[in-house]
Design the sequence.
C-alpha cells in the first residue's frame, strides 16, 4: 500500500489549489481563498449535505462540496453560470417554501439565507409562494422556535447540545413534512450563553433568544455592507 | 417628443414605498422635468387619461379591488414595476395567508379586545365592498411584471436609479448596498 501524500493538488475553475488528504472540497477551497456558497454547513459540525447550495461539478457530476473529499488531480467547477443559477434557484425555493418576511424578522441583516439572496441578487423568486401554515413554538424559557422561517438545515440538531452532550433539537416526519422538534426540558436547562449560541448557529431567524431582538441597528449588522463570503475571498488577497 | 408618463398605485401596502419614493428629495424637481405623472396618489389623478410608459405598484393583492386596479395598470402601462416586499412577496399582509379568511374577519369584528360587547356584532358584507381574497398574493402571480425593486421600503436611491436607468434606456446596474429586503 502506497503512503498517502502529505498534500494533494486539485483545481477550482482552473485555479491550482492544494489540500490535505481527507479535506472536503468546501474546506479545501476556503483554505485556498475560494468561496463556495453554503448554508447548512457549520465549521466543527459533521457535514449534513442538507441544503445543496454548495453543489459543485466534477467530471460532469454534481456533488455537495461540504461532504465530498478532495482527491488528487480533481478539477472542480464552481463559479460557472449554470451552477450559480442552480444555487440561486435553491435559495429561491427556500424562500417560497417557508414564510420568510424579512422586514419582520429579528435575524434580518444577520441571516445567511438573506445574505445569500443578496449575493445572488435575488430580486424575486421564480417559483410560486407556498405560504405554508406553520407555528411559533416556545422552546424552554430562553428561546423561541419560529417554524415559519426554518429551512431544515439541521445545524441545531447537529450542534445545540446540553453540557452532558444531549441533543436539544431533533426532527419529526420526513421530506417536505420534516419539522424540527425541541426537547422542552433540555431547552429550559440551556444557559444564556448556550441559548445565544443556539441562535447564532441557526442560519435564519428560526431559533431566537427571547428579549434580545433588533439589538443591532441597520447599517451595523453582519451583511449590511459586504456580501457573505467576502471574508474568504479577502483572505486570498 | 412628449415626456414619458409615469403612474403609481398602492394596493395592499402601507404607503411606505411611496414615502420612500418622495425621499428622492430635491431630485423630484429633476424628475418632474423628465416625466409626466398620470394616475397616482402623488398628483391625485384617479383614472388613466392616456397610455402610460412606466407603472409602479406597491403592495400585494388582498381583495378584488386590488386585482382590478392591478389589471388596469397592466392594460395601460408598457413597463410595470413591483415596488417593495409586499408587491413582490405579499409582505406583512400575507402573514394572514395561513389563517382562513373567516377566522381573520371574526377575530377583527367579533373577538377583538376593542369590540363593545353591548353593540350588535356585525361583519361588513355589503356587495359594494371589495371581496377579500383567500390569500394575499404578490403582483407577479396575477399579471406579468417587468421589474422588481425589493426593500421595505426600497431605498430612495434604488428607486431613483431604477427610474433613471429606465428613462436613459440603460440596464439596471445594482450595487450590493441597494438590494436589501428590510
Sequence:
Amino acid at each position: 500500500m502506497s503512503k498517502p501524500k502529505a498534500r494533494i493538488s486539485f483545481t477550482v475553475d482552473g485555479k491550482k489549489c492544494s489540500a490535505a488528504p481527507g479535506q472536503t472540497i468546501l474546506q479545501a477551497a476556503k483554505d485556498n481563498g475560494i468561496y463556495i456558497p453554503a448554508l447548512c454547513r457549520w465549521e466543527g459540525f459533521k457535514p449534513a449535505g442538507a441544503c445543496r447550495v454548495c453543489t459543485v461539478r466534477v467530471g460532469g457530476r454534481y456533488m455537495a462540496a461540504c461532504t465530498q473529499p478532495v482527491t488528487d488531480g480533481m478539477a472542480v467547477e464552481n463559479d460557472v453560470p449554470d451552477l450559480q443559477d442552480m444555487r440561486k434557484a435553491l435559495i429561491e425555493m427556500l424562500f417560497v417554501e417557508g414564510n420568510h418576511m424579512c422586514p419582520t424578522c429579528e435575524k434580518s441583516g444577520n441571516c445567511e439565507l438573506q445574505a445569500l439572496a443578496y449575493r445572488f441578487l435575488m430580486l424575486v423568486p421564480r417559483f410560486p409562494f407556498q405560504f405554508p401554515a406553520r407555528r411559533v413554538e416556545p422552546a424552554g424559557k430562553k428561546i423561541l422556535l419560529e417554524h415559519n422561517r426554518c429551512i431544515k438545515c439541521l445545524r441545531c440538531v447537529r450542534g445545540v447540545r446540553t453540557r452532558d452532550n444531549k441533543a436539544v433539537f431533533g426532527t419529526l416526519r420526513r421530506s417536505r413534512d420534516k419539522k424540527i422538534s425541541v426537547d422542552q426540558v433540555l431547552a429550559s436547562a440551556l444557559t444564556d450563553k448556550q441559548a445565544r449560541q443556539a441562535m447564532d448557529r441557526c442560519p435564519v431567524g428560526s431559533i431566537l433568544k427571547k428579549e434580545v431582538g433588533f439589538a443591532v441597528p441597520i447599517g451595523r449588522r453582519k451583511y449590511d455592507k459586504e456580501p457573505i463570503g467576502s471574508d474568504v475571498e479577502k483572505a486570498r488577497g | 417628443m412628449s415626456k414619458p408618463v409615469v403612474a403609481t398605485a398602492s394596493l395592499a401596502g402601507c404607503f411606505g414605498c411611496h414615502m420612500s419614493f418622495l425621499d428622492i428629495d430635491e431630485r423630484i424637481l429633476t424628475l418632474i422635468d423628465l416625466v409626466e405623472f398620470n394616475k397616482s396618489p402623488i398628483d391625485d389623478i384617479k383614472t388613466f387619461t392616456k397610455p402610460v410608459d412606466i407603472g409602479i405598484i406597491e403592495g400585494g393583492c388582498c381583495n378584488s379591488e386590488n386585482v382590478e386596479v392591478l389589471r388596469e395598470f397592466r392594460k395601460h402601462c408598457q413597463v410595470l414595476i413591483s415596488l417593495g416586499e409586499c408587491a413582490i412577496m405579499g409582505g406583512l399582509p400575507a402573514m394572514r395567508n395561513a389563517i382562513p379568511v373567516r377566522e381573520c374577519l371574526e377575530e377583527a369584528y367579533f373577538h377583538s379586545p376593542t369590540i363593545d360587547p353591548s353593540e350588535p356584532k356585525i361583519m361588513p358584507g355589503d356587495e359594494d365592498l371589495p371581496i377579500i381574497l383567500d390569500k394575499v398574493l404578490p403582483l407577479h402571480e396575477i399579471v406579468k411584471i417587468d421589474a422588481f425593486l425589493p426593500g421595505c421600503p426600497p431605498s430612495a436611491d434604488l428607486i431613483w436609479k431604477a427610474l433613471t436607468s429606465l428613462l436613459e434606456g440603460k440596464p439596471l446596474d445594482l450595487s450590493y448596498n441597494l438590494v436589501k429586503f428590510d
Notes: Chain A touches chain B at residues 95, 99-105, 108-109, 114, 117-118, 121, 123-125, 128-129, 131-134, 218, 224-227 (CB under 8 Å). Helices of chain A lie at 25-31, 81-97, 112-119, 155-159, 184-188, 192-201, 230-236. Chain A has a mean pLDDT of 94. The first helix of chain A runs from residue 25 to 31.
